[in-house]
Write a structure and sequence with these properties.
The protein has 229 residues and is an alpha/beta fold. It contains eight helices and five strands, in the order αααβββαβααβαα. A five-stranded mixed β-sheet has the order 3-2-1-4-5. Helix 1 runs antiparallel to helix 2 (39-46). The mean pLDDT is 85. This is Retrovirus-related Pol polyprotein from transposon TNT 1-94.
Amino acid sequence: MVRKSKLDEDKEGKAVDPSHYRGMIGTLLYLTASRPDLQFAICMCARYQARPTEKHDSSVALTAFTDADHAGCQDTHHSTSGSMQFLGERLISWSSKRQKSAAISNTKAKYIALSGCCAQNLWMRSQLSDYGLGFNKIPMCCDNKSAIALCCNNVQHSRSKPIDIRYHFIKEQDENGVIELYFVNTEYQLADLFTKALGRDRIEFLINKLGMRSFTPETVKQLMDEVEK
C-alpha cells in the first residue's frame, strides 16, 4: 500500500466482481503466514469483500512500464528493450535485453519493446491465474505516442511495414482487452533505468520510485551514524 493511504467503503465507486476479489484476497491471506510485513495491507483490503470497488481492486493491480533506446549498441546499432512489472506497489519482474534486429526508427524500437513487455505480461498473467489472481486491461506505460498509436490502430501504416509480423500480436491483446496502453512522460518512465547509462541523480530518483534504496557511501555512513546514536 502507498504510505499513509487509507481505504474506505467507497460507496460511490464502481463495483467489481466480488468472487474474483475474494479469490485474490484468499490467496494473499495465505502469504501472511510467512510474510508478517504483508499482514496489515492484505487485511485492510479484506475488509471490503462484501462490495469491492475499483479503488479496492487497484491495490493488487498488475502494471507494466516499458522503454527502449534507439540504436544504443555501438557495435550492432541494435536497440535495448527495458521493462518492469509491478504487482500493486511492489516491483516483481524486470528485464533489460538487446533487440534481435536493428530498428530504423525510435518508434519501431519502442514498438518492439512494447511487444516484448506484452509477452512477459501474458506469461505473468497466466502464472498468477494459478493462484486465483485474474487480470485484464493490464496498464502498460510507454513514453512514445507513435508506438502506442501503432498498437491501437488496425490500419496498416507506412511506418509499420518494416516491422516484423511477430511483433504485431500486441494489437490483438489490446483489442481483446487484455492490456491497455498509456502514455507517460519520459521523466516518469521507470523503465528508463534498464535501457541506458544514467546520471547519479536520475538513478537515485528512479530507485526511489521503484521502492528501493540506493546504498551510496554517504547513505551507509548515515546509517552507521544512526546506529551509533
